[in-house]
Structures are given as C-alpha cells and as structure tokens.
Amino acid sequence: MSKSSTTQRSTFANIVTTDVHTMNTHLLRCQICLNLHPVLQFKFFPCGHGFCTACIENIFSHNPKCPHCRVTLRRREAHVVYIDIPSPEEERAAKVETLVEGFAQMDRNSKLISVENAGKKLNAFVKEVEGGQDTYSSLLQAVEDFKERIIPAFRKAEEQAKEIETLKKKLEVCQHDLAGSVSRVKPLEKELGKMRSNLCQVEQERDQAIGLAEQASQETIRLRQRLARTEQEVHDLQAETKRYKEHLLQQANIARSQNKKIERLKKDSNKSKAQPTQENARSEVVLESEKSVTQSYDACEVDLEMPLTPSSSLERPLSTHANNVRHDFEAMPPPGGFRSDWQLPDKFSKKRKRDSENGRTDGFPLSLDTKGRPLRTVQLGTRRTLRAPLR
Ligand SMILES: [Zn+2]
Ligand SMILES: [Zn+2]
C-alpha cells in the first residue's frame, strides 16, 4: 500500500496530501449509484472518472469499461486521490481574496456587466457568511454602498458613453450637412454681391431720377409762370381787340352817318343839276373822296393799330382803279400790295401793258428766290448793266 501510494503521488503531482480525517469527513457523490461516500472510498481511472469501490467491483464483474467515456478499464490502474480539502474558514478567506483581487482590477474602463457580476458575487458571499462574525458587517455595508452607488454610477457612465457615441454620429451628420450648406452658401454669397452692386447702381439711378424730377418741377414752375404771363398777355390782347372792335364800330357808325350825308348830298346835287357846272364838279370831287374813305374803312382789318387818317387824297389825281377804292393809308397795304407812286413815261407804261397782255414781264415786280436773288434778268440803271440770276 505504501509503495503504490508513492507512485500515485508522483503521477498526480498537483494533488496535495492532506490529513486523513478531512479526507474521511469530506463526501463525494458516486455517478453510478448516486450515493455519498467519503473521498477515500473512491477510486479514479486514467480517463479521469472515479466511482465508489462497490460500483467499481460491479463494473469489473461484468464489462470493464468506463460508463462515462467507454474506455477499457484495468483494475491495476484504479487509484485513490489525495486532495487538500480546505476548511470552511480557509474557503471563505480564499473567496474574499478573489473578490478583493477582482475589485482591485476594476476601473473606469470595466464593462458594466462585469461590475454587475462582481456585485452579485459579493452579495452572494456576504449572504453566505451572514449571521456570523462582526468582521463582515463592514463588508456588508460596503456591498450595500456598491449596490446603491457604484453600479448606478457605472450604469450611468455606460449610458453616457452610448449617448456620446450617438452624439458623435449626429455630429458627423451635422458636419456633413454643414459642409453641404457651406457649398450652397458660396453661390448665394456671389449672388448677394451681385445684388449689392445692382442696389448701388439702382440707388445712383434713383438719385439721378430725383435730380431730373427736381429739374422738371422747376421747369414746370417756370412754364407755369410763363403760361400765366402768356394768359395775361392774351387777356390784354383780347381787351385790346375789344377796344379796337369798339373803335371800328364807332368808325362804321361814322361811315354810315357819312353815307347818309352823301345820300342827302346826292339828292341835293340832283336837285341842283340845273346850276352852273363849276359848282357841280366841286361837289362831285368831295363825293368821290368821301366814298373812297368809306370803302377803305370797310376793307380794313381788326388789328389795325394806327388811326385811320386818309392821306392827301384830295391833292392827288383821282384813282383809275376799277372799283375806285384807294389804299393809300399808312400801315395798310391794299389787297394787291403797295403800289409805286413812280410816274413812268408814257412809252414804258404802254410797253408794260402790251407785255402783260402777251404774258410777258420784264422783271417788275421783282421775283426773288429764297435767298433773295432775282429769278429772271433784271435791268438796273442804264441799259448796259444787267443782273442775271445765278444758275
Ligand atoms: Zn457507487
Ligand atoms: Zn471514464
């Protein structure tokens, strides 16, 4: 027994021999008969499986194969295990050490799940040792503190980390959007610059337009003043016209009264036909002159300005005009224009009369072009000097 136990110790070097008492008090469950037996009543095979001695005898009496992994078993390979089973105090101390090591490794980078698991382990361990020593009361308090403070803090930290991730993603989206917005803003800025320059131009044009409008209003004021003056002048002219009309009416009345007088004189002359001829001739001269005056008044225009003063008609020979009307008032041209008072020799007048009957005129009256030059040959001075039209 002593030799075989030495061999088995060397085979299972990691198994530490402990006192027999512990090995006899500590129980294991047989996987075949499911009963609890002390550790020393078990035997193990190289496949790792071990059974109680009664069940091993049963296996070798039928089919020597492991009921777990079906490996062929040999009786000489069956051996006892010597394991160091700790006391409950030692077990608790070891658990505490494990927990302390686990907490010492925990920091801010630890996952929430591992922190929660550590909390659960701590809680279970404290419950296991509850109702015992005072040394664990502070540990219990620490567990409560851990549950109340640290786990929520870690949970919050993890939520915040998730939130930060979400915010980072949103920030990336926002940055992308911002880049897009910046690219859209650039054309708008150009547009804005154009619109500003247009605005400047429009303002300049507006100022110009305001200046023009002011000029136009001043011009309008001037024109209105001029219009008022013109209206005043028209008014004055109308008044003057009225005055002339009245004057003309007066003259017409005078002429009418003179006509009546002439009629009376005619009658008188008819009565006195039997009287000497010298007297008769004188009265006829007077009659003729007065008649011509009347006809001249009838022919004169409204805007006659000078007083109607007959010139020395009595000193002149009587006119040979067809209707016997004389137009010798100052500033009063007759219908055919002013006539010359020149008395040409008889031969010239005869010649002109002959020419006019034949449709010919020798330059009298002068016919001029727009620049005042004669249109046909004109004789001036002696017969040798001729002034011909420029062709
Ligand atoms: Zn058994
Ligand atoms: Zn086995």
Note the main sheet. Answer: 2 strands, antiparallel
Give the % helix: 55-70%
- The order of strands across the largest sheet is 1-2
- The quaternary structure here is single chain
Distance between the termini: 173 Å
Q: What's the pLDDT, averaged over the residues? A: 77
- What is the string of SSEs from the N terminus onward? HHEEEEHHHHHHEE
- The geometry reads as rod-shaped
Hetero groups bound? Answer: zinc ion
Q: How many helical elements?
A: 8
Rg for CA atoms: 79 Å
Strand content: under 5%
Parts with pLDDT < 50 across at least 5 consecutive residues: 1-17, 299-323
Coarse structural class: mainly alpha
- List how many beta strands DSSP finds: 6
Organism: Lyophyllum shimeji
Keywords: Metal-binding, Zinc, Zinc-finger
GO molecular function, one term: zinc ion binding
Biased composition (Basic and acidic residues): 260-271
What does this structure look like?
Among the domains are: 2-77, Herpes Virus-1; 98-234, no CATH class; 340-391, no CATH class. Helix content is 59%, strand content 4%. It has helices spanning 2-11, 20-25, 53-61, 88-105, 112-128, 137-271, 277-299, 346-357; strands at residues 27-29, 36-38, 42-44, 50-52, 378-379, 386-387. α5 runs antiparallel to α6 and α6 (137-271) runs antiparallel to α7. It is rod-shaped, with a radius of gyration of 79 Å. The protein binds zinc ion (2 copies). One zinc ion (ZN) binds at residues 45, 47, 49, 66, 68-69, 71. One zinc ion is lined by residues 45, 47, 49, 66, 68-69, 71. One of its GO terms (molecular function) is zinc ion binding. Residues 250-289, 327-374 are annotated as: Disordered. This is RING-type domain-containing protein. Keywords: Metal-binding, Zinc, Zinc-finger.
